[in-house]
Amino acid sequence: MLTLILLVLAVTGLLVVMRREAGALPALGVLAVLGLAGLLLGSPVLGVLLLIGAGGVAVAGLPALRIRWLSPRLFATFKEVAPRVSDTERTALEAGTVAWDGELFSGRPDWQRLLDYRDEGLSDEERAFLEHQCSVAAGMCNAWEIARERADLPQELWDYLKREGFFGMIIPKAYGGLEFSAKAQSLVLQKLSISETLMVTVGVPNSLGPGELLLKYGTQAQKDHYLPRLADGREIPCFGLTGPRAGSDATAIPDTGVVCRQVVDGKEVLGLRLNFEKRWITLAPIATVVGLAFRMFDPDHLLGDEEDLGITCALIPRDTAGMEIGRRHHPIGSPFMNGPLKGRDVYVPLDTIIGGPEMAGQGWRMLVECLSVGRCITLPSGAAGTARYGLGWSGGFARIRRQFSVPVAEMEGVQEPLARMAALCYIARAAVYQTANTIDHGVKPAVPSAILKSQLTEFQRQALGDAMDIHGGKAVTLGPRNYLGIGYSANPVAITVEGANIMTRNLMIFGQGAIRCHPYVLEELAAKDADDLPAFDRAVFGHTGLILGNAARALTQGLGLGKPAVPFDTVAAPYAQDAARLSAGFGLCADAAMASLGASMKQREMLSARLGDVLSNLYLASMVLKQWHDGAKVEGEATLLHYSCRFLLHRAEQALDELFDNLPNQALGRLLRVIVMPTGRRWKRPHDDLAREIAQAVSRDTALRRTLLEATWQGSDGARDNPLAHYNALLVDYDRAEVLYRTVNKAYAKGELPMQALHPEQRVEAALKADIIGADDADFMRRYEAEVLELLSVDDFDYDAFASDKANILRHNAA
User: Fold this and answer.
1) What percent of the chain has a predicted confidence (pLDDT) above 70?
2) Helices of type H across 82-123
3) Which of 91, 351, 395, 734 suits a disulfide with 698, CB 3.0-4.6 Å?
4) Are the CB atoms for 231 and 165 separated by under 8 Å?
5) Average pLDDT for residues 450-477, to the nearest whole number?
6) How far apart are CA 289 and CA 296, in angstroms?
7) Does this entry carry the keyword Phosphoprotein (predicted)?
């Protein structure tokens, strides 16, 4: 019995020390004290074993001892197996900052740090712009007209965007811009995502492009000239990065700029001779100024000793001799301006380099630093907004579309995707807003930008697919009445651009995060490069303490012991506590995967993707919890919180489960499963009861629906019709209409109305005639049914309407 007591005390003491990452000295104390107790109290075997363990801890764990024999050997091995970090990778790793993503990597997230990013909301100016200017712009859009009749935005909309400063949201007021916060930019793009073309047109100049590059790196002369002109739309920018042979691997661009001398206006000028071919460049067909990324060379050493100066960014006017510009690509589903750029022996002076000649070769750093913010806002905001419109339309349609005498919103087959859409909207809304809020606090989120871009555009794909399923024939028949189909077909654009999702998920999220966000890996690599043994010793044994700490935290919390204190209410606290448990498990698994695979981890993309999925779902769950903590909490929102958190934590556990199954070292996989999930998986898919409750709420006029549809255009005063406004109005009247539907249908079933009264309108008239309903109710139902029928209707066209060449039309029934 004494032996068992001592053993339990030893294990408990070591777990406490490990959880707190208290270091070798407390562990040594636990083992030594209990070892001596064993010797003195009659358990000599265990006592000796504990004292031997204490000696091992002293030799391997105390800095003064280990630095003499253990650390040099570890350092030599580390130098051999550590992956080589290229210059381009190092630039990407050093871009941006680490904030909440680093907390999740640590395995012991400090939730208060997340809550300390206070949300100051929007300014009065930003709020007014969102409510008025954005509504006016959205009200000028019809998807069919833009995609099929114009292949462009209307001229009056272009004029309005320029006049109201939409292209200058990121530009300071000193240069004539709006100087909006990141939150305001995000909400503007969410509202404008009623049209993919409109959102992209406004989003790109405010994201990766000359404006942001000029703000951060431009010379004062460049800023003074271009920023006011970009702000008021006199200049339309584009940025040429990708090409036929350089897409996701942007560092492989073959376009060149060679330093040379050329006579200009009778004077010899030092400049660049550019040769380039770019593809997929948004706004290129109409751009007046072109940002260009190229590889810069100085073969004649006109600038210095270095010949290959590296990737460089320059700003080139449209009318520069030798540049071919104006042709268009045809992006799938959306006619936003996109096209190629070509240049053959294009000469530009050196002062066209963004930041001037001293920024030659700094282009890759400039681009990845800008991407760390821009990629957090534009596409994730567009995805969040698109999903939100899809939910608004789908909830309304499912309530007014009746089959088998009931709204399809009452059918569980429709309720399941409707609830999933609501959860995806809720998660996306929280993620883009709360991440933008951290940007407003000075964070430059490199890893979260990859998470948001890939995860939220995949959410958009799922939500639009669900919306199409719910709408059925209404959405698969294109025309002016179809508000969904064209946006659905354009979804692959968001999946592909600004870092294709396959690459982002498989390579970037964990590949970048494992080094950038890990508390010690970057320090270890830096110590290797500097050949600094003391620095390596501190980093590697801090890392060892973290591994042991995460193992202890994951195991004990997995057994339900020692749940961390979290600053949330009783609704959210269980999810925060379990996210902390999974964070510890993720940190342990990340270290185990890197240690067991070494440099080959780069090639094990499926494993990297699964680790990235764990991090992504934990990040998204934490954003949902932050939103819940800060928000007003409307009726029904708790149900949506439960659904969303369970959905995300289930996905995180699923990714861990698949990781354990696929680690090359199966023994390691089994050991990790025991530590991280000692009682098995905790989280199942959200229960059907939650789905039913959410579907009911989002297909009726409720506080939850109104909250989810914030930052969408819901007015009825635009230049174009607004289906969402019609659905909202019908839902306000739905309860009255449902009572009348039941009254009339019951009368018909009982034979009180003529059998041939098959249409709802016929039954209303027959019920009025039979005094089953009154005149007021009949008038109400006539108006209600007319509106319903219009929203259910689809368009038809002349037989030859879709052929661009009428001569090729086959007249099958000409006779």
Assistant:
1) 98
2) 87-94, 100-106, 111-115
3) 395
4) yes
5) 96
6) 20
7) no
The predicted pLDDT at position 255 comes to: 94
- Chain center to CA of 422: 17
Q: Is 542 helix (H, G, I), strand (E, B) or coil?
A: helix
Q: pLDDT digits over 378-387, tens only?
A: 999 999 999 9
Per DSSP, helices labelled H in 82-219 are: 87-94, 100-106, 111-115, 124-131, 133-138, 143-144, 155-163, 182-192, 196-203, 210-217
Q: What is the mean pLDDT of residues 148-173?
A: 95
Q: Which amino acid is at 410?
A: E
Is 210 or 391 the better-scoring residue by pLDDT? 391
Spatial separation of the C-alpha atoms in residues 672 and 547, rounded to whole Å: 12
Q: How far is CA 655 from the centre of its chain?
A: 18
Residues 475 and 484 sit within 8 Å (Cβ to Cβ)? yes
State the residue for tokens 């939910």: 391
* Helix extents (H) in 565-687: 573-597, 605-630, 637-662, 666-676
Written as six digits, the tokens of 84 are 């080589």
Average pLDDT over residues 122-144: 96
What residues does 262 pair with on adjacent strands?
A: 269
pTM: 0.94
Q: How do residues 699-732 score in pLDDT, each as one tens digit? A: 999 999 999 999 999 998 888 999 999 999 999 9
The residue-averaged pLDDT of 194-209 equals: 90
* Percent of the chain clearing pLDDT 90 (strictly above): 70
The H or E element spanning position 224 is helix 220-231
Single-letter residue type at 545:
G
State how far the Cα of 231 lies from the Cα of 208, in Å rounded to an integer. Answer: 15
Residue found by looking up tokens 């929203």 in the block: 791
Q: What is the DSSP letter of 50?
A: H
DSSP 229-278: HHHTTSS-EEEE--BTTBSS-GGG---EEEEEEEEETTEEEEEEEEEEEE
Query: Is-contact 354 291, C-beta < 8 A?
Result: yes
Residue-level pLDDT at 507: 86
Cα dist from 482 to 135, 163, 467, whole Å: 20, 30, 12
Q: Write down the pLDDT at residue 446.
A: 87
Instruction: Count the neighbouring beta carbons within 10 Å of the beta carbon of residue 457.
Output: 27
Kindly report the average pLDDT of the chain as a whole number.
91
What was the pLDDT predicted at 73?
86
User: Given a cut of 90, is residue 390 above it in pLDDT?
Assistant: yes
What mean pLDDT do residues 505-514 have?
A: 86
Give Cα separations from 166 to 125, 163, 185, 236 (angstroms): 13, 8, 10, 12
Residue 608, phi then psi, degrees to nearest 5: -60, -40
Q: What angle do CA 29, 35, 38 make, to 5 degrees?
A: 140
Cα dihedral sign, 740-745-747-748: positive
Does residue 86 register a pLDDT over 70?
no
Angstrom distances, CA of residue 664 to CA of 80, 81, 668: 21, 17, 8
User: What is the identity of the amino acid at 578?
Assistant: D
Q: For 163, what's the count of Cα atoms within 13 Å in the CB-facing half-sphere?
A: 10
| Helical residues (DSSP H) of 663-759, grouped into ranges | 666-676, 688-698, 703-708, 723-732, 734-749
* Distance between CA atoms of residues 120 and 100, nearest Å: 19
With contact defined as beta carbons under 8 Å apart, do 613 and 505 qualify?
A: yes
Q: Is the pLDDT of residue 469 over 90?
A: yes
**Long-range contacts made by residues 487-491, C-beta under 8 angstroms, separation at least 24?**
487/143, 487/195, 487/196, 487/333, 487/334, 487/386, 487/389, 487/390, 488/333, 488/464, 489/332, 489/333, 489/334, 490/196, 490/331, 490/332, 490/333, 490/334, 491/333, 491/457, 491/460, 491/461, 491/464
Who's near 778: CB < 8 A, 6+ residues apart? 764, 765, 767, 768
Question: Is pLDDT of 636 > 70?
Answer: yes
Active site residues: 498
